[in-house]
Amino acid sequence: MPTIETDEHKSLREAVAALGKRHGRTFDRETLWSEAAKLGYLGVNLPEAHGGGGGGIAELSIVLEELGAAGCPLLMMVVSPAICGTVIARFGTEAQKQEWLPALADGTRTMAFGITEPDAGSNSHRITTTAHRDGADWLLTGRKVFISGVDIADATLIVGRTEDSRTGRLKPCLFIVPRDAEGFTRRQIDMELQAAEEQFELTLDDVRLPAEALVGDEDAGLLQLFAGLNPERIMTAAFAIGMGRYALSQAITYARDRTVWNTPIGAHQAIAHPLAQAHIDLELARLMMQKAAHLYDTGDDVAAGEAANMAKYAAGEACVKAVDQAVHTLGGNGLTREFGLASLITAARVARIAPVSREMILNYVSHQTLGLPKSY
Predict the structure, then answer these.
(1) Which of 28, 33, 267, 300 is 20 to 30 A removed from 21 (C-alpha atoms)?
(2) pLDDT category, 290, cuts 50, 70, 90?
(3) Long-range contact list for 1-5, CB < 8 A, 24+ apart?
């Protein structure tokens, strides 16, 4: 894989950085979303034949990282074009592609993603949301929790399970559920974390869906599921790296200018070295993220799964350390609204927790990569 970005990627990075700089930390989500869409950034990973830019997750991750580095990340980019758009582009019917991909690319429609359940946590094998046939239709029943942006999304891509007619075992499947579907209700979760996108608990009570709501092949659910989860991990890494870069840039500017004795505080190694280390950690995380995106975009799903998990882990750790060090560098000023760092103390932890905890990633690497036995 290339270790140096192409000129096209550098140009994309510069253009998105300029857009982010214009909006800054006090951005309006709807305005930024609309402008990013008009410039072609939201659909940069989607097929040209359906209104996208014809790129991949590598390009989309650059967009999210640079917006985050400017202080205005768009969380729904992780969900709508990266997860849902990718799954539909790879496995959707032609009708689904025509209906959804152009609208996801131009930002006029968005789609949420529902996988997490109250009693399943990180164990997707314990998902209890089930679908069964009722004539030509499907009936979908279950609950989801911590689902982002359902109130602003036109539909939610719900991960459920159907019964395999041959074995009787439950297998994963994905359904497009319109926001106004009968029996589909939401309850906003009261979060202390302040973000532009709200979190919701969903209830699906015999939600009736037409046959065409099923995405892809009923028998290829697991493959389709991971086709969405790997981009999710890569984009979460981009989200975390951007956040860490924003915090670090605030700390660097402050350390250059703040003078307490005879020199700026950045001249003191107790300040300079931790910031340098935070920069190194973010750069290393980005390299793994780029590797994961490259593997995914070239179709190596197995290798991409390993790299995507590692990238998400590395980026989450680097982000938390960068934010912590930035706050410590500014001291009391690090907790003021003026510098926009205090809210990141909580937000940075999201990259450690979601969409999969760092402990589950360590489980994945120890089992899949190192070949160690499972304890569960």
Answers:
(1) 267
(2) very high
(3) 1/290, 1/291, 1/294, 1/295, 2/294, 3/287, 5/290
C-alpha–C-alpha distance, residues 314 and 362, integer Å: 11
Task: Indicate the pLDDT class of residue 71, thresholds 50, 70 and 90.
Answer: very high
The predicted model gives 210-219 an average pLDDT of 87
Q: Given pLDDT bands bounded at 50, 70 and 90, which one contains residue 164?
A: low
Burial (CB count <10 Å: 0-12, 13-18, 19+), residue 264: middle
Count other Cβ atoms within 10 Å, centred on residue 25.
15
Length of the chain: 376
pTM score, two decimals?
0.95
Q: Identify whether the C-beta of residue 207 lies closer than 8 Å to the C-beta of residue 176.
A: no
Whole-number pLDDT of residue 162 = 86
User: Would you say the C-alpha torsion 237, 240, 246, 247 has a positive or negative sign?
Assistant: negative
Distance CA 312, CA 361 (A): 9
Confidence at residue 170, expressed as pLDDT on a 0 to 100 scale: 75
Q: Which two tokens stand for residue 253?
A: 């500017």
List of residues 6+ apart from 376 with CB closer than 8 A = none
Cβ proximity of 85 and 46 under 8 Å: yes
Please give the C-alpha separations between residue 111 and each of 56, 150, 361, in angstroms, as whole numbers.
Answer: 18, 8, 26
Instruction: Write the single-letter amino acid at 144.
Output: K
Can you read off the two tokens belonging to residue 171? Answer: 């297998």
3-state class (DSSP) for residue 353: helix
